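Q: Two folds, back to back.
A: First:
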Amino acid sequence: MPEFKKPNIIIIGAQKSGTTWLHKQLSFHPDFFMSEPKELNFFNNPDQVKNPKKQSEYYAHFEGASAQPYRGESTPHYFWKRIEGSPFGNVRQGHDNATAIRDALGSDLRMIVSMRDPVSRAVSAYYHNYAVGRNPEKRGIFWCDPSMGIVDLGFYKRHWEHFASVFSQKNLCAVLYDDISKNPVGYLRQVLRFLRAREPDGYMDNLNLGEKINNRDRLMRRRNPEERADPPKIQPQEIAALLEVYREDIRFVSDLTGRSLLHWSDLDALIKQHCTDNTGT
């Protein structure tokens, strides 16, 4: 087996929770080599994981790293423990993302999970999948193909506890999407502390911390004019139903981070945000 340069950090999720933003900011740090493209989607694909040629292609993304002590990639679909019987996600028999990552990269790997209020995350994922052409029938959020994981990816408790059991809690860093807009410097410093990485002089000053990436408007430009004019609409009852299925996960993240997340459960505010102007970002 040839010796490969391997990633020693991965931003594993959560989908639509600022992973592209974080990947970009770390790519400007002199001690980090972040993959290009960002999402390699290797360990969530059982056919690739078992294929020596695909393995070589995956590790080739890190061959350009020189003396940087941190090599990383960011694939938000890694943070997904699929289970039998879930109506919102399909199971891949004989494959588990966390186990595949550990077996290939070792148990010392450090992983970052950025979590967003799960209702807004699901709404954003719904519009994202529509914008890239995966829901042309405009099916409701609960009726989309389970392979998209629109609802299932928001069950943070299940996914976190599984990764913590395959690795350990100390391998995982939980950060909150809220802080990207409210306290981006604090968010980045939390990640750097977890990784035991230095903060070079002037590093934060040279970043565009207010940049929005992969928002709905940008994605919708890919659609034809008729589709842009009439996107699907999220209904208040869908927001209420999402909040109910995610209540345990919201409590879990609050306990995990020691943060008050009452706004994640504010039904009126969520309805106003996602059903009044249908921003869906």
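A: Second:
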Amino acid sequence: MALIAPSFLAADFLNLAQECRMLNESEADWFHLDVMDGRFVPNISFGLPVIEHIRKATKKICDVHLMIVEPEKFTEAFKKAGADLITVHIEACPHLHRNIQQIKSLDMLAGVAVNPHTPIDHLQDILQDIDVVNLMSVNPGFGGQEFIPHTLVKVRQLRKMIDEQGLSVKIQIDGGVTLKNAASILKAGADVLVVGSAIFRAADPKAAIHQLKQLKGR
């Protein structure tokens, strides 16, 4: 069964307490929290104070996706704010192994995100050290974009790499995930679906999450 990680980028920021309550009552597994710095991506989202308050509002996993340069400067602060999982971008980390070691040393799960143009084989030498690969299925920075179909090819390639090495790394798909394409994404080999608009803008968000949870994977 897939893990569902609603993306707060699509949430109603004037009613975050209600959004958290709704997700706590739903079958959602993780809270996906996108942090953008306006440098690595052309947008600015939210940061530590918002995550601190969301952490107080849930016991579910806080999945913090850092779309920022020099994430090592803020890793400890995000741990204190309540992150359970921190994902950094391979494109933003010239010393990626050091970044992963830092995250692990703070007793958090470690993830690596990969932009649409980055080849999967760039992960070959880091897979054994991480818990999650976030395959970006849109260009990072803005919610509401359409899913890039070629992502399915990358999911299959990554699934093969993980299985051949006998690893338990989870494949997370982030961007443009809807009720229409989620089944094909899961069948390709994904484990975690980051879903924004298709949940928060649904007529019944909890029902949308339930529908996603019923989908069969590989």
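Q: And?
A: The chain has a mean pLDDT of 96.
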